[in-house]
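Reading a protein record of the kind used here takes only a little practice. The record below shows the convention in full.

——
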Amino acid sequence: MATAPGALVPAATCAAAQGPEHVREPVAYDAILLAGFGGPEGQEDVIPFLRNVTAGRGIPDERLEEVAVHYRHFGGVSPINEQNRTLRAALVAELERRGLDLPVYWGNRNWDPYLNDALREARANGHHRLLAIATSAYASYSSCRQYREDLADALEDTGLTGVLQVDKVRQFFDHPGFVTPFVEGVRAGLATLRSRGAQHIEVLFATHSIPTADAQRSGPSSLGLRDGGAYAAQHRYVAEVVMSQAGETGTPWQLVYQSRSGPPSQPWLEPDINDAIAELPASGRDAVLIVPLGFLSDHMEVLWDLDTEALETAEEHHLEAVRVPTPGSHPAFVAGLVDLVTERLEGTPATDRPALTSLGPWQDVCRPGCCENVRRGFRPAVAGLAP
């Protein structure tokens, strides 16, 4: 889809307003906005939180309660908010270490503290040029565009459209800071399994499944990616890098999916991790290493879908199993996020930006039509050219 003449990026700084893929003009941002997903922090929060997540889909509470059991198993508390508090504190410390005077505000899409609150707080403190870091590394509707839409909604809801400028760092799936913790985890995990006597290990790189229609539309259409679009391609490319850097190119691996929702009639990306695990013994495997490649921290879909369900499936099939840690607040990951900030502060050319796959460095300003959601259509979004 071609960019219309004179098209502007909503709420953008002047350097990003005309929509360059990579912004080469330094921008004097005065604050960072950590944009999270959010999660309940008590039993009474669970259903209201799930209503927020599924808003507009008409899902009755009795069906939401089927998902709520995962949260209720852990006292109704998702670990994601505490993990974002930890990440925010680590970002503040790293920014201070580098002499960057940038406060870090934190707001969620689906639970307190909300994005609206973070924007109001930033404005009340006199800040007006914000650089957002979404807590998701990949390109898809739910992992990128929906964050951009919710930021646009928050600006409108608070009356701060035209008052605050909000840009967003690029998707960082192949940035060394994100990849390094997984390389370390794969090395350590395989060493642990081998110390237990495992000889035929398969590595399963796990990520959140999404509707096939959304996957095919993930990323800019100009890339011409098929078979899961940019979303699946980014994961495959990064998995290859992880195995190579871990020195394990001869160890078998595959990309698998988890946390599927939606009606059975709607195609989602496959195979499901539990189905993949069940088939491993027939291939002569005696162990499995689970790598949560699609996730930044050990939130509910890691604790339940991987640490509970997937590990139980492995045990049922008499497989040794280890789950690799997520990046969390790993020093390399935190430093990498601040590197993404400095790219925009300094206007670093794309040729000088680190990227470990041929797909990157990813764009700063999303292309028109990027990551379309067929069901919802195009809605206003920051950090990208319309639609």
Summary: Residues 1-6 have pLDDT under 50 and may be disordered. The longest helix spans residues 176-195.
